[in-house]
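Before relying on records like the one below, remember that each one covers exactly one chain. Contacts with other chains, cofactors or solvent are not represented anywhere in the record.
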Amino acid sequence: MITDGYPNGSINLSGGSSDGPSGSGGQPEPEKPFATVDDLERRWHALTGDEREKAEALLADASDLIRSTCPNWEKASELTRERVCCAIVKRAMLAGDDTAGVSQHSQTAGPYAETWSYTNPMGDLYLTQSEKESLGGDGAAWAYDMSSGRTSP
């Protein structure tokens, strides 16, 4: 028998409380986002209809990113998870559609020059180091001694 190396059953990598299929056709229930569009608007600005739609999808994606990246996310307060989720989405939405793929922009007219570098030109969802630490990461360096098997902070 040839296998692809994966176990037969599904494995919950998100750290969430989903223990298996629910009553909805064998699919697990989608996890609720940590923040709502209203939460994002309170922290940023009123969104248009299209922006609200995009924000709703990005809030779900950002929540999934938190669950899959930060193993101790459940230890963070609800407010911290909400704050970080909104910050991730705001960064992604600030990129806009007209900057796709741009990492630097220069413009010159006579003696005047203007240069821009976009911090997130592709609108990627990512966590900063301080956000990871807020979500349960300790941020401390550690080492593993291969001869003794001990770790040190």
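Strands lie at 105-109, 112-116, 143-144, 151-152.
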